[in-house]
Amino acid sequence: MLAHRRAYGTPKITVYGAPRCSDYRQSKQFLGEQPVRHNWVDIGEDEEGRNRVQELNDSKQIIPTIIFEDGLILVEPSNAELVAKWGTILKAKRECYDLVIVGSGHAGLTTALYTARQGIETLVIEKGGIGARPAPLSASTTNPASLKESAAANRATR
Questions:
Q1: Using CA atoms, how far apart are residues 112 and 99, in angstroms rounded to an integer?
Q2: Is residue 77 located within the same domain as residue 117?
Q3: Are 45 and 101 within one domain?
Q4: Are residues 45 and 115 in the same domain?
Q5: What is the C-alpha to C-alpha distance for residues 36 and 125, in angstroms, rounded to an integer?
Q6: How far, in Å, are 20, 51, 124 from residue 59 at the CA level?
Q7: Looking at the structure, do residues 77 and 108 belong to the same domain, yes or no?
Q8: Residues 1-60: tens digit of each pLDDT
Q9: How many domains in the chain?
Q10: Which of 68, 86, 104 is the last residue of a domain?
Q11: pLDDT for 90-129, tens place per residue?
C-alpha cells in the first residue's frame, strides 16, 4: 500500500483520497495542521486502497474516507466532525484574558511564554494545531540584563 506517513510512530488514522478531490485536500490540510499521526493513501495510485474505499462505501469511490484507530469510519467529514471525534475543546477556559495572541509561530509562542511567566493571563489562538517549536530558553536568554547586552552588541556590529 502506498502511503505517506505523517509525524512519528504508528499512525492512528488512515485517510483514503485523491489529490483531485477538494474534500480530500481540505481534510489533508486540516489533518496536516494537527498533532495527530496519520497515513495518506492516494487511491489513484494504490489499487488496494481504492478497493478498500469501495468496500467501505457500497462499491462507491467516496473520498475522503477516514478510518480511525478505534474502527470508526468517517466519509467526507467536515473539519468540525474531525474535531468532535478527537474531543478537542474549542472554547476558552476563561471569559476574559489580559492578552490574546493570534498565531502560534515562534513569535507567538515566545510571547505567550514570557507573558505567562509574568502572571499575565494569556490566550493563544491558532487555526490548526500549535505547531512551532521554540528554541529552549537558557538563563542567559531570559535575563533582561543579558538581553540588553545582546542588543548593544548587535548595534555595535552594524
A1: 9
A2: no
A3: no
A4: no
A5: 18
A6: 20, 8, 44
A7: no
A8: 334 444 444 557 899 999 988 888 888 888 877 777 788 999 999 999 999 999 999 999
A9: 2
A10: 86
A11: 678 888 999 999 988 889 989 999 999 999 999 988 876 6
Domain hosting 10: range is 4-86
C-alpha cell at 92: 476558552
DSSP readout, the chain? ---EEESSSS-SEEEEE-TT-HHHHHHHHHHHTSS--EEEEETTT-HHHHHHHHHHTTT---S-EEEETTS-EEES--HHHHHHHHT---S-SSS--SEEEE--SHHHHHHHHHHHHTT--EEEE-SS-----PPPP-HHHH-HHHHHHHHHHHHHT-
Q: Which three cell numbers stand for residue 137?
A: 530558553
**Against a cut of 0.90, is the pTM above it?**
no
Residue 80 burial (10 A CB sphere; 0-12, 13-18, 19+): exposed
Q: Cell digits for 6?
A: 505523517
CB-side neighbour CA atoms (13 Å) of 68: 14
